[in-house]
Write a structure and sequence with these properties.
Order of helices and strands of chain B: HHHHHHHHHH
CATH architecture of the largest domain in chain A: Orthogonal Bundle
Radius of gyration of chain A: 20 Å
Strand content of chain A: under 5%
Distance between the termini of chain A: 45 Å
CATH class of the largest domain in chain A: Mainly Alpha
Radius of gyration of chain B: 33 Å
Strand content of chain B: under 5%
Structural class of chain B: mainly alpha
Helix content of chain B: 55-70%
Shape of chain A: elongated
Oligomer: heterodimer
Distance between the termini of chain B: 72 Å
Number of domains of chain A: 2
Structural class of chain A: mainly alpha
Largest sheet of chain B: none
Number of domains of chain B: 2
CATH topology of the largest domain in chain A: Rna Polymerase Sigma Factor, Chain: A
Shape of chain B: rod-shaped
Chain lengths: ~200, ~210
């Protein structure tokens, strides 16, 4: 996203909207909201797996943004600033609800030490070509919250491990480890889903 | 090395840190090769999940209400003439609305003193016998401020600041009209200023009735 980005064919660029929003211009707030609502909402939805919570958190994230917009000096991209703020809003909410931000270092459920888990009846064929975005989304929603947080931040949103460590308050090694476990868990969910689908045919 | 051991070192393996034993296992084990391919596939597909949904319009409505409650949304700033007045007037509906406001409200504050060749607007206002003198905060303005007195301090301050800004803008425009009663720009600015002030009043009344 660039500062010169134009909003829905109207007159304001993002940069102009930011400056006007600093003066309390309602139209500028709406322009900024429209530019970034999908990204923020999607982030909230991925991290919570719940549409009602995602809407509440989207509202909260933008509210915080607009409260603090006068402090935005443009050292980083506006979208980066907003995105980080949104992540913090979601993480704070997860903490309030007592949900784990970083999973305990338990083994992936059902996995036995010393062997790669294989689902009964699931052939050893690869996932590629057999799952689509909807399957993946459903599986992400089924992830335990801690795994989901790390997976969404890294693989969906593109944060680096050092950034995740900073955001959620864990070590870089922990972030890497949990991401790996999250992917393994997702694979397991996706293979089970595929096996169930095949069984219905 | 077995598959479980390989799986545990897979994150490092994917980053290029591996032993010959690990590489040998990977090269000879189809299950672990499939595992790696699947994890790569999941990771690549995850990027497609970004920003595919949109919140319901109600989210903005609720957000806007909160922004107003907190006084974060202000009325548009009163802009300097000739630079931005026409950009405002591109909003065609504002012209008749502002004009109607000027006529209907009687614009109590304007006296075209000394206007020997009054423009249409000054004629309208000159015929109003109830006109009050321009002041930063008039009696009517004080009524407005009393209306919003129960709101949060930041919001009250915002109303006062907007009101004073409107009044000083009106004063400037009136002075300009005294200097040049036929200046159409200034006439429009005056209409605009009164329209802004009218909006302030409307906003205060609307919200006090909620």
């Amino acid at each position: 996203m660039t500062g010169a980005r134009r909003a829905q064919g109207d007159k304001l660029t993002e940069t102009e909207a930011i400056e006007r929003a600093k003066q309390g211009d309602g139209e500028a707030f709406k322009v900024l909201y429209d530019l970034h609502k999908r990204r923020v909402y999607s982030l909230c939805l991925r991290m919570t797996g719940n549409t009602a919570s995602a809407e509440d958190l989207t509202q909260e994230a933008f509210l915080q943004l607009f409260r603090k917009i006068s402090t935005f000096r443009g050292e980083s991209a506006f979208s980066t600033w907003l995105h980080r703020m949104s992540v913090n809003v979601v993480l704070m909410q997860l903490r309030k609800k007592g949900l784990p931000i970083v999973p305990l270092d338990e083994a992936t459920e059902g996995e036995e030490e010393g062997q790669v888990k294989k689902e009964p009846g699931a052939p050893d064929e690869r996932l590629a070509g057999s799952i689509d975005r909807l399957h993946l989304q459903r599986a992400v929603d089924e992830l335990p919250p801690g795994y989901r947080t790390i997976f969404v931040l890294h693989d969906v949103e593109g944060y680096e491990h050092n950034e995740i460590a900073d955001l959620v308050g864990c070590s870089i090694g922990n972030s890497k480890s949990q991401l790996h476990k999250a992917r393994i868990k997702l694979r397991e969910l996706l293979r089970m889903n595929r096996a169930e689908k095949a069984g219905k045919r | 090395m077995n598959c479980g051991e390989f799986e545990r070192v897979l994150p490092e393996f994917l980053e290029g840190e591996h032993t010959r034993e690990q590489q040998a296992h990977f090269d000879s084990c189809s299950a672990c090769a499939n595992l790696r391919a699947d994890l790569d596939f999941i990771s690549s597909q995850a990027k497609l999940l970004v920003a595919s949904e949109e919140p319901r319009p109600a989210v903005w409505d609720a957000l806007e209400a909160r922004l107003r409650d907190e006084g974060l949304i202000r009325l548009p700033e009163f802009v300097t003439p000739k630079v931005s007045i026409f950009s405002r007037w591109r909003t065609a509906w504002l012209v008749p609305v502002a004009a109607a406001l000027v006529i209907a409200a009687g614009i109590k504050l304007y006296h075209p003193a000394g206007a020997g060749d009054p423009a249409p607007i000054s004629k309208q206002h000159g015929s109003n016998p109830t006109v009050a003198a321009v002041a930063p905060v008039s009696h009517e303005d004080q009524v407005l401020l009393n209306t919003v007195a129960t709101r949060v301090p930041a919001q009250r301050a915002r109303y006062r600041a907007d009101l004073e800004s409107a009044n000083s803008f009106i004063q400037d425009a009136e002075q300009s009209i005294k200097d040049d009663p036929n200046d159409i720009y200034t006439q429009q600015m005056l209409i605009n200023a009164y329209a802004q002030k009218q909006m302030l009043y409307d906003l205060a009344v609307d919200r006090s009735e909620q």
